[in-house]
């Protein structure tokens, strides 16, 4: 399904949901890089008055994501007081038996799921509420769409998903192949970001946001937990500058919760880290000046 300004079907050609103030609700994990994209786009477009949010507990155990609000920053299910996220999926479809993931964009009016695909939700947020008073800014502009789609393709495969392929590998060969691609792509990105401020030039786009939510988790989690330890992001001049550049944009730091991030990964993935011990982790000062605004004008 697709959320559009006028309720017409979106690019998927199926069910159009019309943009209305306070009709939609976002279920997220502050730990999850995919859900994080939607929080950033909500922030950039000023959609807080339009779209309310519930935050799951960072621990994902035998029953999946829970609404236990005992962890600071978790809110519980503010709509239905469910105990588990899977109950929300069953509310939308009593026969549902698929994967239960975040983010979930929920229609409070019809009590159903609009979408659970972050790549689509950020595009909905990009334009659907513009006529209702969303902040200006097009993060998927027509002139750059081909370039953005190309970047998204290989960055998803080798970086966003690549760290997971390395981390969950069960053979040396699978790990070696995955981790090599991660660092090949980071080297390629380092080169691109040495030429201009953002991935497509000097305009922030969804491609930057999609990369960034992986980069911000890389040193605190993926270096140790997923064995992506050839280099840290802080070892790269341009990638580390890019990481700090976006972190320091108004409101972005508010979407980052390292307690949720580190607790989720180190304590939820028992096959990788059976003791649940949280590593001390390399320290980063994301408020350190980045200079990319001056460097690229």
From TrEMBL:
<dbReference type="InterPro" id="IPR036249">
    <property type="entry name" value="Thioredoxin-like_sf"/>
</dbReference>
<feature type="binding site">
    <location>
        <position position="65"/>
    </location>
    <ligand>
        <name>glutathione</name>
    </ligand>
</feature>
<dbReference type="Pfam" id="PF13409">
    <property type="entry name" value="GST_N_2"/>
</dbReference>
<feature type="site" description="Lowers pKa of active site Cys">
    <location>
        <position position="265"/>
    </location>
</feature>
<feature type="binding site">
    <location>
        <begin position="99"/>
        <end position="102"/>
    </location>
    <ligand>
        <name>glutathione</name>
    </ligand>
</feature>
<feature type="binding site">
    <location>
        <begin position="117"/>
        <end position="118"/>
    </location>
    <ligand>
        <name>glutathione</name>
    </ligand>
</feature>
<feature type="site" description="Lowers pKa of active site Cys">
    <location>
        <position position="222"/>
    </location>
</feature>
<dbReference type="GO" id="GO:0004364">
    <property type="term" value="F:glutathione transferase activity"/>
</dbReference>
<dbReference type="InterPro" id="IPR016639">
    <property type="entry name" value="GST_Omega/GSH"/>
</dbReference>
<dbReference type="InterPro" id="IPR040079">
    <property type="entry name" value="Glutathione_S-Trfase"/>
</dbReference>
<dbReference type="InterPro" id="IPR004045">
    <property type="entry name" value="Glutathione_S-Trfase_N"/>
</dbReference>
<feature type="active site" description="Nucleophile">
    <location>
        <position position="32"/>
    </location>
</feature>
<dbReference type="GO" id="GO:0005737">
    <property type="term" value="C:cytoplasm"/>
</dbReference>
<dbReference type="InterPro" id="IPR010987">
    <property type="entry name" value="Glutathione-S-Trfase_C-like"/>
</dbReference>
<feature type="domain" description="GST C-terminal">
    <location>
        <begin position="141"/>
        <end position="265"/>
    </location>
</feature>
<feature type="active site" description="Proton donor/acceptor">
    <location>
        <position position="164"/>
    </location>
</feature>
<dbReference type="InterPro" id="IPR047047">
    <property type="entry name" value="GST_Omega-like_C"/>
</dbReference>
<dbReference type="InterPro" id="IPR036282">
    <property type="entry name" value="Glutathione-S-Trfase_C_sf"/>
</dbReference>
<dbReference type="Pfam" id="PF13410">
    <property type="entry name" value="GST_C_2"/>
</dbReference>
<protein>
    <submittedName>
        <fullName>Glutathione S-transferase family protein</fullName>
    </submittedName>
</protein>
């Amino acid at each position: 399904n697709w959320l559009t300004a006028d309720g017409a079907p979106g690019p998927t050609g199926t069910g159009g949901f019309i943009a209305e103030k306070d009709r939609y609700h976002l279920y997220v994990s502050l730990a999850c890089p995919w859900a994080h994209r939607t929080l950033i786009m909500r922030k950039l477009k000023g959609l807080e008055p339009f779209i309310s949010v519930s935050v799951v507990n960072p621990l994902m155990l035998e029953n999946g994501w829970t609404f236990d609000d005992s962890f600071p920053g978790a809110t519980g299910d503010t709509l239905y007081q469910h105990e588990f996220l899977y109950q929300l999926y069953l509310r939308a479809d009593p026969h549902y038996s698929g994967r239960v993931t975040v983010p979930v964009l929920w229609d409070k009016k019809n009590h159903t799921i609009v979408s659970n695909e972050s790549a689509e939700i950020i595009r909905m947020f990009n334009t659907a509420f513009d006529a209702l008073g969303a902040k200006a800014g097009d993060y998927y502009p027509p002139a750059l769409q081909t370039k953005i789609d190309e970047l998204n393709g290989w960055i998803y495969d080798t970086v966003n998903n690549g760290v997971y392929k390395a981390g969950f590998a069960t053979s040396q060969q699978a790990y070696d192949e995955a981790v090599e691609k991660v660092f090949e792509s980071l080297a390629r990105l380092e080169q691109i970001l040495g030429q201009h401020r953002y991935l497509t030039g000097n305009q922030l786009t969804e491609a930057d946001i999609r990369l960034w939510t992986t980069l911000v988790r890389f040193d605190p989690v993926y270096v140790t937990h997923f064995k992506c330890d050839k280099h840290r992001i802080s070892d790269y001049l341009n990638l580390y500058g890019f990481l700090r550049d976006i972190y320091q944009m108004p409101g972005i730091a508010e979407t980052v919760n390292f307690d949720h991030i580190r607790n989720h990964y180190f304590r939820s993935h028992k096959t990788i880290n059976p003791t649940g011990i949280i590593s001390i982790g390399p320290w980063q000062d994301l408020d350190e000046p980045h200079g990319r605004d001056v460097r690229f004008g």
